[in-house]
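Record copied across here:
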Amino acid sequence: MPYILISTQIRLETGPTMVGDEYSDPAVMSYLGARKTTMLGNNFSEYHVDEPSRVVLDKLEKIGYRVVSMTGVGQTLVWCLHKETSDSL
């Protein structure tokens, strides 16, 4: 899974940061120290960390991820990251 989306609320730049969904790579989530939670009323799970987005971005860069794009959607900041794979067709 070479793509990761992370997000945070604009007023919560110091954390927490949403770092994945229920289909995210468990090894990457473990590396980030993420915890899997399901909010009441949701039928899906998300991974969160208490660190600010900047710290998460630094950690992901260390294991080969690069920011592809970033945007603000309402009160939410979202980053899309990609990691090159050595697989070739």
Observations:
- The first strand starts at residue 3 and ends at 9.
- The CA atoms of residues 32 and 38 lie 18 Å apart.
- The mean pLDDT is 89.
